[in-house]
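Lab notebook, bench 4. The sequencing result for the construct came back, and we need a structural model before the next group meeting so we can plan mutations. Quick request posted to the team channel:

Model the 3D structure of this chain.
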Amino acid sequence: MYKLVIWIEPLADWERFEAEWPAFLRQAEALPALRREATSRVENFLYGDARCRWVHELFFDTLAEAQSAMSSPAGQAAGRRLQQITGGRMTLFLAEHKEDDLAHIHQFSPPGTPDA
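Done. Here's the predicted structure in token form:
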């Protein structure tokens, strides 16, 4: 699975951003091959130089589908809206996404470990 990750930097007018965010979501949710999405508000920075206040992820089965979605008419419209509501204060990247449940992971713990 692959995802388009959108990091939104601190903005001067969060009220405006939040008021216009649903319009972006409607456009993004029209992307071809979109499987799911997730949004996170950043509460605390623990370490590092990255400064973002909002993270949104759009999930696709393949990298090719993610790239195709971004270049589709819906993707281009969503991109323009995102530029408009953030003033360009964002970072976009594509990432391979893998996850597993702890119950499954613990099945492979060596015998005698607390998780086995």
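The chain has one domain: 2-106.
Will bring this to the meeting.
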